[in-house]
Amino acid sequence: MFSFDNREMDEFFQTLSPLVQHSIIMCDIKPRTLEELRTLAATLVE
Fold this sequence. Notes:
mainly alpha
């Protein structure tokens, strides 16, 4: 199972659909903050 070092980011990541989680893991963009992760997830859902 994939996880982030940051607890808040990890908790948010776990709420995402499996497809979005997989897309984030496979993309070259590595979010460093919760806001970056939220933005990336929102972009993938659109």
